[in-house]
Design goal:
heterotrimer; A mainly alpha (340); B alpha+beta (393); C mainly alpha (322); A: 340 residues; mainly alpha; MetI-like fold; two-stranded antiparallel ribbon; 2% strand; globular; C: 322 residues; two-stranded antiparallel sheet; 14 helices; flat; disordered N terminus
């Protein structure tokens, strides 16, 4: 019969057995909440094993002393002693640098992991925001070849960190290029007095180079986020301003800036978090001995099998990032509350 | 075969009861409209039949099988959606054949069925088009073809015409009726438009606040509404309601009374009742002769006239201090009357009107339940003359 | 237009102006004051050229060093002192650079596939379902991706080297020794880069009208079937975006790429190992490092050129979603 009603067959089919059919029927019978958690299970399981478990374990390990000898990974339980020693700089024997600065002199600030990381973060995020804003304003214009300018601006962001490190290593390695020479044959930057003759082995110079490298690579990230914000601004607002006689600078100050501010703050938060984890560019361009960032300290002590110390630094690093993020969120909530 | 039965079906969300203890039996081959205001639970009811929403309590049977826990794909239903819901990444042929391909029909069978379905909805020659290349009406036809191609036992249609323009909507209504005649399949159709429900369905299920108010053929719902809600919802313009009281002499309200003996009609004097009368059952006193059984004359002043071409709606004010305005219809001092287009009637004119007693509805004001339809005592065959005499006084 | 006519007018009609003997610069200044639009325009070009130079010069420098013959690698200026394209071939002789790149690709593709599948399920849940605990879960997932990888390093290293065990049913079971396989990198990459994809896909999946999903289910798919037959195909641009971003992120990654293998190509070390492996014990072949870097950049550069729109939309969607 042409009008054989398939649903009869469908209902019969659904009564069929077999593990696949059974699984499908079981899944279809779940409520929305059950189904939601079922589908989230793989993702949550991955995060549990790869992120939550290590975080908890790291904290646990930070409560034990380093193993002094033998095959054990950890020494005896010491409670919060590692934290106390770290924050009072008594751990320096185990680390390539002090954790907190021993004074306020430039030398002291540059030999402390905490201040080195904060200086790097502050300068890189500040300049990335300025430059990213500039790039976004350029990309927001309509001009021929915009597509290619955009590619040129994005590409550094897509460059692998190891290659980014290699680029700046090759730019600043003394002798090979025109930027840094040798004492017998000083080159451009030496003559200008910007950096010394061994910039990649000198903390101040290396920090400068690494900050520049980071700005070069990640300004594009800022630019893209700000560009998205710019393009969501209602164009008719500018017509209104122009009719009211506002100059382009006034339009920028009175319309663009206030409307883009929340986006810029979000982008800055993202960049701050990433900058505080800096490691790869240091390892490839200079060295963790020269520029001791927080992550550097973790890896260095890890490589020396000082697991208790390493775990402590790792956890403190995470906590510091957490504090900075909280500060941002509080400030951001203020800024947003004020804007509306 | 193809009948749908809901038994004590309830759907509760966190703090809202969307459907409350619904019992309904849609017979095989029947065209039933679920009608009600938005948020009344009609769409939720349909989604539960389709299997897209699980009932909190109760059971649903399709063709005698309990499908309460079956997923939509195993229920043998097809559905047409309000937003048409064509897959934008598939052409017409792929859209129509989607369900068949999922069920691994062989290609020839799919071709044959798709062509037949396209023919029924007059879409021949458009199978290669993409949905965004079609007009709203054509897309709606594709959606219908997608539903009929599987020969489902039950069609579910969720306001399928709501997004079409008025002219196309009327046209598609006729087509759907033709389709139902041709396919002879059970159709459950959700709409908020009572006119759509009246014109198309075998029976109308009026739903309000998650509860089934009445399920009856359109004319029964129109002539014998089960309660105030149905009376007010079915029919356009809506029925006039006048709040009053039942006395020994009949119905008394602020502006007029209708005389009868409540006892003859099996009613108790002293209860608060609402009198309902449709605009077309209100007549000018001059035309009293054409009314079989008119009431006493009611004094009124015309307010606004709305000529519709085939009739004129006349808004009547029953008292000097009558309120006018937005809620005019709900005011006890107003009455809407429909008169012949060539009646000589002016605005702000004193007129006398009568009601057709056989078309008067009485409702219990507090419960809303209908007490009776037509002031004709069921027990008295000759009562007609008696009441007529009474009103002539 | 108006500026030109004014200029012409100024030059031809006013005789008093002539004794001033204005040079081209002062004329330019005068025009600028009369017509600020022009200043903005020229400022714009200056700034654009500046950005292009600063972003592209480092790549140019790599090419200069790569083609410079090794004996001339000293005080190299703005153009190569010789031409020696052989470096691009020698890279492959010195280390199996193609193998390292292949490893990078495999790691990128494996991670991308895992992330897309898991993030599709999660994006569907967050974008289309309503359930208790939704917002806290989303925030938790976001928070995890911002912990420094250093905080995960120790336990993960122990886990992947088979040094973590537990007594299950009376038997002591070791975690499998996965070191020198792709997994110690792929799994952390997946966990780290999944949140961004989840947010991108949540946005895209959430925008598909409910009716389409319902229609698919009534027509005969399961809920999961509707996801993969209707929602995912309709969100193809979003899925592509998430895929491209994940792949680039993996290709860029340093921390786990560097620490979770022994740097040998046969043990799944990605290009990080290849480039750092060029540094010999007795020499530092700058030209080869530069050549390897140029080769290593090419795949992502091509990807950026092809998929720039997707990258832009993906980054902004992921970030602004917060």
């Amino acid at each position: 019969m042409a009008t054989e009603q398939e649903s009869q067959q469908a209902i019969r089919d659904s009564g069929r057995s077999g593990p696949y059919v059974a699984a499908v029927r079981w899944m279809e019978s779940l409520s929305e909440t059950q189904f939601a958690y079922l589908l989230l299970t793989p993702a949550l399981l991955l995060l549990l094993v790869i992120a939550v478990y290590p975080l908890v374990t790291t904290f646990g390990m930070s409560l034990f002393a380093d193993a002094i000898a033998g095959s054990a990974n950890l020494g005896e339980f010491v409670g919060l002693q590692n934290y106390v020693e770290l924050l009072t700089n008594e751990k320096t024997y185990a680390l390539p640098s002090a954790f907190v600065p021993t004074g306020l002199s430039t030398g002291a600030l540059l030999s402390s992991a905490l201040t080195v990381t904060l200086i790097f973060t502050l300068f890189s995020v500040f300049f990335e925001t300025i430059i990213g804003f500039g790039q976004a304003l350029v990309l927001d214009q309509d001009f021929r070849g915009r597509r290619w300018v955009r590619v040129a601006i994005i590409i550094p962001w897509a460059v692998p960190i190891v290659i980014q490190g290699m680029i700046f290593y090759l730019l600043f390695q003394p002798g090979i290029g025109f930027l840094v020479g040798t004492p017998e044959n000083p080159a451009l930057l030496n003559q200008l007095g910007v950096i010394g003759f061994t910039p990649l082995a000198n903390t101040a110079d290396s920090l400068l180079i690494i900050t520049v490298a980071d700005i070069w690579k990640t300004s594009a990230f800022m630019a893209l986020l700000i560009l998205a914000g710019l393009q969501s601004i209602d164009r008719s607002l500018y017509d209104v301003a122009r009719v009211s006689g506002a100059s382009p600078w006034q339009q920028f100050k009175m319309i663009t800036l206030p409307l883009i501010l929340p986006t810029v703050l979000v982008a800055m938060l993202f960049r701050t978090i990433a900058a505080m984890r800096v490691y790869g560019i240091i390892e490839t361009t200079s060295s963790c001995q020269t520029v001791p960032s927080l992550s550097c300290l973790v890896v260095t002590s890890f490589n020396q099998r000082l697991y208790g110390t390493s775990a402590t630094v790792a956890f403190v690093t995470a906590a510091i990032i957490g504090v900075v993020v909280s500060i941002y969120i509080v400030k951001f909530a203020d800024a947003e509350g004020g804007a509306f | 075969m193809g009948d749908v039965k809901l038994e004590h079906v309830t759907k509760r969300y966190d703090d809202v009861t969307a459907v409350d203890d619904m019992n309904m039996h849609v017979r095989d081959g029947e065209f039933v409209c679920l009608v009600g205001p938005s948020g009344c639970g009609k769409s939720t009811t349909m989604e539960m039949v389709a299997g897209l929403t699980m009932p909190t309590e109760g059971d649903i049977y399709i063709s005698g099988t309990n499908v309460t826990n079956l997923p939509p794909k195993d229920r043998g239903v097809a559905m047409v959606f309000q937003n048409i819901a064509l897959f934008p990444h598939m052409n017409v042929y792929k859209n129509i054949s989607f369900g068949l391909r999922l069920r691994d029909y062989d290609d020839e069978e799919i071709d044959r069925r798709v062509e037949r379905a396209a023919e029924i909805v007059q879409l021949e020659g458009m199978l290669e088009r993409m949905p965004d290349e079609m007009s709203g009406g054509q897309r709606q036809r594709v959606a219908i073809a997608r539903a009929i191609v599987r020969n489902p036992e039950v069609f579910l249609m969720d306001e399928p015409l709501a997004n079409l323009d008025a002219k196309l909507r009327v046209h598609m209504r006729t087509e759907l009726q033709r389709l139902h005649k041709e396919l002879d399949t059970t159709i459950i159709y959700v709409t908020h438009d009572q006119a759509e429900a009246m014109t198309m369905s075998d029976r109308i299920a009026v739903i309000d606040s998650g509860q089934l108010q009445q399920i009856d053929p359109p004319l029964t719902c129109y002539n014998e509404p089960a309660n105030l809600f149905v009376a007010g919802f079915i029919g356009s313009p809506a029925m006039n309601f006048v709040d009053g009281r039942l006395t020994d002499a009949g119905f008394e309200s602020k502006n007029f009374s209708v005389e009868f003996d409540p006892a003859d009609l099996g009613l108790d004097a002293g209860t608060d009742v609402t009198l309902g009368i449709r605009p077309e059952d209100v007549y000018l006193a001059d035309e009293r002769e054409s009314v079989g059984d008119p009431t006493m004359v009611i004094d009124a002043v015309t307010d606004v006239l709305e000529p519709m071409g085939d009739e004129i709606f006349v808004y009547l004010l029953l008292s000097e201090d009558a309120e006018t305005g937005m809620d005019a219809q709900d005011s006890p001092d107003q009455l809407l009357m429909s008169v012949d287009p060539d009646s000589a009637i002016e605005e702000d004119e004193n007129v006398d009107v009568v009601l057709d007693r056989s078309r008067v509805h009485l409702f219990d004001t507090s419960s809303g339940e209908a007490l009776l339809h037509g002031l004709v005592a069921p027990a008295q065959a000759e009562g007609v003359t008696e009441t007529e005499a009474e009103s002539d006084d | 237009m108006s500026s030109e006519s004014r200029t012409d007018g100024g030059q031809t009609t006013t005789i008093e102006d002539r004794p001033l003997k204005r040079g081209p610069f002062s004329r330019w200044v005068e025009n600028s004051i009369k017509n600020p639009q022009r200043v903005y325009r020229s400022m714009f070009y200056v700034v654009t050229v500046f950005f292009l130079l600063t972003t592209l010069f480092p790549f140019y420098w790599l090419v200069v060093l790569a083609v410079t013959p090794p004996r001339l690698l000293s005080g190299v200026g703005l153009y190569p002192p010789g031409f020696n394209p052989e470096s691009f071939l020698i890279v492959f002789e010195r280390v199996p650079f193609h193998w390292f790149m292949f490893n990078s690709f495999v790691l990128g593709i494996m991670t991308t596939v895992i992330v897309l599948v898991l993030a599709s399920l999660a994006g569907y849940v967050f974008g289309r379902l309503r359930f208790p605990g939704k917002t806290p879960l989303m925030l938790a997932i976001l928070a995890i991706s911002y912990f420094p990888p250093a905080a995960f390093l120790l336990p993960l290293f122990e886990l992947f080297t088979g040094n973590v065990g537990a007594v299950i049913g009376g038997v002591y079971i070791h975690s499998p020794d996965l070191f020198n396989t792709p997994w110690p990198m792929v799994l952390p990459f997946s966990a780290l880069f999944m949140p961004l994809s989840i947010f991108i896909l949540t946005t895209f999946y959430g925008q598909i009208p409910d009716g389409l999903e319902d229609a698919a289910r009534v027509e005969g798919t399961t809920r999961l079937g509707a996801l993969f037959r209707v929602i995912v195909p309709l969100s193809a641009p979003g899925v592509a975006t998430a895929g491209v971003l994940t792949f680039i992120s993996v290709y860029n990654e340093f921390f786990f790429s560097f620490l979770m293998n022994n740097g040998e190509a046969e043990n799944w070390a990605p290009i990080v190992g290849g480039i750092l492996g060029l540094q010999g014990q007795f020499d530092t072949p700058y030209h080869l490092m530069a050549a390897a870097s140029v080769i290593g950049v090419l795949p992502v550069a091509i990807l950026v050129i092809i998929a720039q729109e997707k990258i832009v939309s993906g980054l902004t969607a992921g970030a602004l979603k917060e």
